Prior knowledge:
The chain is of the alpha+beta class. It has helices at 2-24, 69-75, 326-336, 351-368, 375-390, 392-407, 409-419, 423-437, 445-464, 510-525, 532-549, 554-580, and strands at 80-84, 88-93, 98-108, 117-121, 130-138, 154-155, 159-160, 166-171, 176-184, 189-198, 204-215, 229-234, 237-239, 253-258, 261-265, 269-274, 280-290, 293-301, 305-307, 312-323. The strands form 3 sheets. Strands 6-8-9-10-20-16-15-12-13 form a 9-stranded antiparallel β-sheet, with no helix packed on it. Strands 5, 11, 14, 17, 18 and 19 form a 6-stranded antiparallel β-sheet that branches. The protein has a 5-stranded mixed β-sheet with strand order 4-3-2-1-7, with no helix packed on it. Strand 9 and strand 10 form a beta hairpin. Helix 1 (2-24) runs parallel beside helix 11 and helix 10 (510-525) runs antiparallel to helix 11. The longest helix has 27 residues, at 554-580.
Amino acid sequence: xxxxxxxxxxxxxxxxxxxxxxxxxxxxxxxxxxxxxxxxxxxxxxxxxxxxxxxxxxxxxxxxxxxxxxxxxxxxxxxxxxxxxxxxxxxxxxxxxxxxxxxxxxxxxxxxxxxxxxxxxxxxxxxxxxxxxxxxxxxxxxxxxxxxxxxxxxxxxxxxxxxxxxxxxxxxxxxxxxxxxxxxxxxxxxxxxxxxxxxxxxxxxxxxxxxxxxxxxxxxxxxxxxxxxxxxxxxxxxxxxxxxxxxxxxxxxxxxxxxxxxxxxxxxxxxxxxxxxxxxxxxxxxxxxxxxxxxxxxxxxxxxxxxxxxxxxxxxxxxxxxxxxxxxxxxxxxxxxxxxxxxxxxxxxxxxxxxxxxxxxxxxxxxxxxxxxxxxxxxxxxxxxxxxxxxxxxxxxxxxxxxxxxxxxxxxxxxxxxxxxxxxxxxxxxxxxxxxxxxxxxxxxxxxxxxxxxxxxxxxxxxxxxxxxxxxxxxxxxxxxxxxxxxxxxxxxxxxxxxxxxxxxxxxxxxxxxxxxxxxxxxxxxxxxxxxxxxxxxxxxxxxxxxxxxxxxxxxxxxxxxxxxxxxxxxxxxxxxxxxxxxxx
Length: 585
């Protein structure tokens, strides 16, 4: 008997701990980036074969502080190729041939219609510089003149579109002509084809490279369930174990891989290098500190390429820079040859259930509730109902056993009065009573156990998928991925004031309160635990969960409340039937 009680207590506490841990013990927030010199890593002097480009020291004339993004772009406007696609806008800088200006046309920072669009990439010299670069490095000891960050390229057109690629060309004056062909699809995938023509009389050895450079320690989510930072798939395996904080100045994390991809991931956005999948690569994540600025870089160097006299060589690389849309990443994964590109979305340990949950919600939203306001919210309600139906037989068995326990309360009280001082005899008599009527004190655990993986998988879906970002529901919920914006402190918006940041811990919205009420009503249908301490613990759980879930995505709270309501209806019906035919003891 005591062991069964402990099982129930352990399950309830486990849920409370798992839900509350990240709320009460979030990781320390990252240091804000310090305004500083933003000189960026560029190919250095003749690295060893297979080694990635090295950073150079800032130029003496470099501006000591960063400038606003718009100012830096405007200063070089005449030397830029415009990018126009249905999903992207921006420019390529002809000085250095860097992709360093990119805005996501379909995504805004907030739900406000006047909110600015998401600015993904920013040029060197601007605040929080973030850009990509491709090129070539020479063999050790070579004195080749190769394109660098100061090289001025010539463009074949002024605009890059899905229907109009652009060629950038540059001649080093020493017998080498470099051609960089940029193409882009309707979404976020760039294809960069690099060609080197050798018009000289001697063979030339070159190594292709690509890099993503990011200045400043980005602000990441204060949660353990989401990885933001360096990310890669090397040799067919996801590698997301390196964090920004793991990168120490000039101490690279080196990898050797056959194909794969690498870059930096944010919660909803990704900038990733996708090199030639047939080559062996030397890749790394590295951090440089230059004049108090933290510079994070993901780069790779490809295999050796020899350009014979009067011939040419060509390499093709790709770059993803955009939103982590699930179906789009799946399509790119198939196109690129199963490179596990969908792993850029942190579906977590329950990938096998988390992604199917998303696919189901997305299907319902697009096909059953297409065009309806709150389609994802309605999809959550429908999915919850389907899950309840799937587990209906198990839950029914559990609730029937619980109803028997509730009907046994008078008999159990008599046993406590009779054998209260003899714990061993009391437990023996209670076990005999349970056996006679077929009751199970641990039966109530089953519905909770079933909910745990679904709960956390749905939480991951709401938290990490961009499709849920700013997805509205009915009433005051304008973003299912954000907490309920209302608060009982101001009577849910009736009083004309908002909570100051220092009182944010008191922010409890209407939906969390509805969830708490449904949880309390469901618990009232359950038999009262015989242990007074256990009974009090279960009594306060609805209040604890109301407080905890107040800071969770509103979609998750709506799911929990709806699930409680369905459980209450199912349990009430079963117990009503059981009351009509009481157990014989």
